[in-house]
Design goal:
With 236 residues, the protein is an alpha+beta fold. Helices cover 28% and strands 23% of the residues.
Length: 236
């Protein structure tokens, strides 16, 4: 049997060094604490358009054991410390995404990518994640993979409990290494890579019947297509 290894540094995981990494950081769970709120993990079928509930967590128990203590208490903890004040300003609407400096954009983009990898690693139905990109951040903190794309939005009308205090991230984890073109609405702003250019798609805002439908709509506004062989065309 192949021994499990830390997804950050590849050291073999044992009972002595394995760590329980909270997918939603503990400090963030405290800030947005709502005792009645659960995080539900669904598998969506494109064929039937139905959602299958796989698991449900409260904010404090959404964790996974795939990193070692050195990674969890080292570069990942440092990243949380750098991202926390920026995220708090955005969450409390004291800072605008438009006001972020390139350094601040880089920090919260790295945080969003790290968090997206942790969320995706809890989904058993996904193919093997491109962990070499994650390990690159572990080896050289603040060296953020340009292949990962991050866009975000501050949406005042997002319902409580279905966003991080009005803050909504969409992160592209590339299963195929290829050049991409991104298209979205004017709601989301590009954060990473810093020079990322996006195409604007004009969409009519539909009638929303539930908070979950609203989140799905905002997420599906973002499209990242692989650039085709033809220099004048791209698949989006």
């Amino acid at each position: 049997m192949t021994k499990r290894a830390c997804v950050g540094c590849t050291v073999p995981l044992t009972n002595e060094n394995i760590s329980r990494e909270h997918i939603l950081p503990e400090w963030l769970a405290t800030v947005v604490h709502q005792p009645e709120l659960t995080l539900k993990h669904y598998r969506h079928s494109e064929d039937t358009r139905e959602d299958e509930l796989l698991r449900s967590h409260d904010l404090g128990s959404y964790a996974i054991k795939n990193v070692c203590r050195d990674c969890n208490n080292g570069w990942m903890s440092d990243l949380e410390g750098r991202a926390k004040p920026i995220l708090l300003g955005l969450m409390n609407m004291k800072t605008s995404l438009l006001q972020l400096s390139p350094e601040e954009r880089s920090v919260i983009s790295e945080w969003a990518i790290k968090t997206a990898f942790m969320i995706a690693s809890a989904q058993n139905n996904l193919p093997e994640l491109p962990w070499h990109l994650f390990r690159g951040m572990a080896r050289m903190p603040q060296e953020i993979p340009a292949q990962c794309i991050v866009v975000a939005a501050q949406v005042p009308f997002l319902p409580d409990g279905f966003s991080i205090n009005k803050l909504h991230f969409v992160v592209l984890i590339p299963f195929v290494d290829a050049e991409r073109v991104v298209r979205t609405s004017g709601v989301q702003l590009p954060l990473w890579p810093l020079e990322l250019e996006i195409l604007i798609a004009h969409r009519h805002f539909p009638t929303i019947t539930s908070p979950n439908d609203l989140i799905n709509f905002l997420t599906n506004l973002v499209e990242a297509g692989i650039v085709s062989d033809s220099p004048s065309r791209a698949r989006v």
